[in-house]
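User: Could you check the structure of this?
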Amino acid sequence: MPERSSRRRVRGGGATLTAVAVVAGVALTGCSSSGQGGGAPGAAGPRSPSPSPAWDASPASVAAVGDSITRGFDACSVLADCPEVSWATGTDAGVRSLAVRLLGTSKAPTHSWNHAVSGARMAQLPEQMALAAKEDPALVTVMIGANDACRDSVRLMTPVADFRASFEASVRQLRSAAPKAQLYVSSVPDLKRLWSTGRANPLGKQIWKLGICRSMLGDADDMGAAAVARRDAVRERVVAYNEVLRDVCAGDELCRDDGGAVFDYRFTGKQLSEWDWFHPGRNGQARLAEIAYRKVTASGPPA
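Assistant: Sure, the predicted structure tokens are below.
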């Protein structure tokens, strides 16, 4: 999840986006009485609450926002994006992305868009969300937050309050520009589990020394008290980020989160990049696509 520029040209790069608040209509309930001669009240009963919009398990288009995982970073070659294997919008036959599973192989390339940027943190999500909303998608997928925890030190991790403010601004941005778009929010992977799995590979640990997620992967074999406490602090911050994602999503009637499925998924070496043993490789991207498809197409709220 290194901080590097995406190969895609981002429209309007550098422009400051103002998140526009959604103006929600307030349902009024009235109690009017005739007040004539002590007669029976003529008040109408309170209105029944409007039903929540039904979740469409077969959306007709998909836009993806997020970070290097959604860009397929290090899945095909070292230190490079490979969006064709993206779990969300890729076209690789072995991965069978969420877009391919929902739309089919012929429609997915023309009805899905990947606006994720490798290295992006939550503060950059409102800009990505604005770009995604311009596509007028039926579904927007979000996977972001790993780079907020993957910093050069624990001290530099994004504060939870800032993480929340940026995610709330992102949802407002979507609702102002594409109010009917559904939102699928993935949890942030368990970075400590990825460290535990990847440290078994000597080559992967050499790549880690280039600066990948120093807060978790630095001094990978150090099991001293300070190193253990550092890794635990990163994991705790990821847990807090996931609580924010779940909480904000619960406040939006067109949003579903994955119920912690990606955080809980036990990646093995088979699912990790052969280049850095940290990012998902093709197999890992396929597993992420399976999780997303299962959650998006569930008949009720995902477990």
